[in-house]
TrEMBL record:
Record EC number: 2.5.1.7
Pfam families named among the record's database cross-references: EPSP_synthase
SUPFAM superfamilies for the chain: EPT/RTPC-like
Keywords assigned: Cell cycle, Cell division, Cell shape, Cell wall biogenesis/degradation, Cytoplasm, Peptidoglycan synthesis, Transferase
Family: Belongs to the EPSP synthase family. MurA subfamily.
Record lineage: Bacteria, Bacillati, Actinomycetota, Actinomycetes, Mycobacteriales
Organism, scientific name: Mycobacterium haemophilum
Pathway: Cell wall biogenesis; peptidoglycan biosynthesis
PANTHER family listed in its UniProt record: UDP-N-ACETYLGLUCOSAMINE 1-CARBOXYVINYLTRANSFERASE
Protein name, UniProt field: UDP-N-acetylglucosamine 1-carboxyvinyltransferase
Residue span(s) of domain Enolpyruvate transferase: 24-446
Record carries keyword Cell division: yes
InterPro entries referenced in this protein's UniProt entry, alphabetically: Enolpyruvate_Tfrase_dom, Enolpyruvate_Tfrase_sf, MurA_subfamily, RNA3'P_cycl/enolpyr_Trfase_a/b
Function per UniProt: Cell wall formation. Adds enolpyruvyl to UDP-N-acetylglucosamine.
Length: 461
């Protein structure tokens, strides 16, 4: 096997094509990385553009699979989609009532957030089975879809979800309503579960498209929701919080045309966690720039608190840059990943970091039941992690110490955590399933190479 070492030899296009990477570990990472815009906010802002019809320009827009696929779906439906480096402009007043391309929709999960706006316009939507990470409880790990239909029925729609996850929904008119989103929590005590985030975002988009007033109780509190509310407010919707547990949205169909907006996405919170982990795991030092300091500190507050407890320091300092690494954690952790706390997307990285810490760490996952697919693969690198129900027990001071002939990644964050883990031990590791990376990172492999990593694409047969 030949290892290509010239950073310029790798392009972002390679990262979209390659499904197998060769990783030569044992090198600390050093240098600068500019963090892109937040993927989870991007998909809902695009959903808002469908609801609003007025031109929406998204800046700090990441060049990821979600951007490409959603843009192409809307272009094929008659929308004017303009992509420039770092920006996406959507002018969607001329959308046509056409079915969404199933091959495109199957490549991502975010197409579901087009549904409320399309339903309000045309009275019917058929959404093919969605793609994305296979971390749910449907066949083959498919993520749940029923919550989207359940929310839309509260606004007057009706429809069905097929066994393979396709959604068909119709509505003569969407009407404002009242929803207690605790109904969509698997654990109402922890305020957590896999349906909660998507149900909240769908409810907000449907409320914006509906006639009348909608009152949401206990909406999902994370920045991807607050960014959606900011965009809709800028477009002219009246949205307010009577108290911290409620969100009230005045529908707009009878209130005139929405305003055009230009919205800069906040920094991708999970990308920050990724780079902080990369620095610590490889014993390097990475300067992250382009950060939205205040939003970042608020959005990652649970992760920052946990980092302090572990003896790490990766909190932003109020500027647009921060240096992370190389000090390893000096204390174990006992943490529950929940919708009102640490992002489930952060969990694979925290699991990896805990292998460097002393003592026994415990990480419980209450959002996605299949979010531990990376654990058996990490153990092939020499970690000692046991899965007990919905939790991982990590024996500390057993980080990745040996290369593995072959690792297999089953989802986006698992793939990135395994890639970082393979960079620690000396030797060559092959990682398959690396195509998942294109859905969450603009060019993770290229950025790692520019920081000193030796990674090449394994030719496919």
């Amino acid at each position: 096997m030949t290892m290509t070492t010239t950073a310029s030899a790798w392009t972002a296009t390679d990262s979209l094509i390659a499904d197998s990477l060769l990783i030569e570990g044992g090198r600390p990472l050093h240098g600068d990385v500019r963090v892109g815009g937040f993927k989870h906010a991007l998909v809902t802002v695009i959903g808002a553009a469908v609801v609003g019809r007025a031109p929406v320009t998204i800046t700090n827009c990441p060049e990821i699979e979600e951007t490409r696929v959603l843009g192409e779906l809307l272009r094929r439906a008659g929308g004017l989609v303009t992509r420039r480096p770092g920006s996406l402009t959507l002018t969607l007043g001329g959308l046509r009532d056409e079915p969404l391309d199933p091959a495109l929709a199957a490549r991502i999960h975010g197409a579901v957030y087009l549904v409320p706006g399309l339903l309000a316009r045309f009275g019917r939507v058929q959404l093919p089975p969605a793609g994305g990470c296979r971390i749910g409880d449907r066949p083959a790990g498919g993520r749940p879809v029923d919550q989207y239909l359940a929310v839309l029925t509260r606004f007057g729609a009706h429809g069905q979800v097929t066994a393979d996850g396709a959604l068909s929904v119709v509505a003569d008119r969407l009407t404002g309503c009242e929803i207690d989103l605790r109904e969509f929590m698997a654990d109402p005590v922890l305020l957590s579960g896999p349906l909660y985030s998507g149900a909240t975002k769908t409810a907000i988009l449907a409320a914006a498209a509906a006639h009348g007033t909608t009152r949401l109780h206990y909406p999902y509190p994370k920045p991807d929701v607050t960014e959606l509310v900011r965009v809709l407010s800028a477009m002219g919707w009246s949205i307010w919080r009577p108290d911290p547990t409620q969100l009230v949205i005045e529908g707009r169909p009878d209130r005139g045309e929405p305003r055009p907006v230009k919205h800069a996405l906040i920094s991708d919170l999970i990308e920050v966690v990724t780079w902080a982990t990369a620095a610590v795991v490889t014993g390097g030092s990475i300067r992250l720039s382009g950060l939205t300091g205040g939003a970042l500190a608020a959005g990652l507050a649970p992760e920052i608190t946990l980092a302090r407890q572990m003896g790490l320091r990766w909190e932003p300092d109020g500027t647009d840059a921060v240096v992370v690494g190389p000090t390893p954690p000096d204390r174990p952790v006992n943490v529950t990943v929940a919708s009102h706390g640490i992002y489930s997307d952060s969990q694979p990285f925290l699991t990896l970091l805990a292998t460097l810490a002393p003592g026994l760490s415990h990480i419980r996952e209450t959002v996605w039941q299949n979010r531990f697919s990376h654990v058996p693969e990490l153990n092939r690198l020499g970690t000692r992690i046991d899965l007990i129900g919905d939790a991982a027990r990590i024996t500390g001071h057993h980080p990745p110490v040996r290369a593995a002939k072959r690792l297999s990644a089953a989802d986006l964050r698992g793939a990135s955590a395994l890639l970082l883990a393979a960079l620690r031990p000396a030797g060559m590791t092959q990682l398959t399933g690396s195509h998942h990376l294109a859905r969450g990172y603009q060019d993770l492999v290229g950025d790692l190479r520019r920081l000193g990593a030796r990674i090449s694409a394994e030719p496919t047969e």
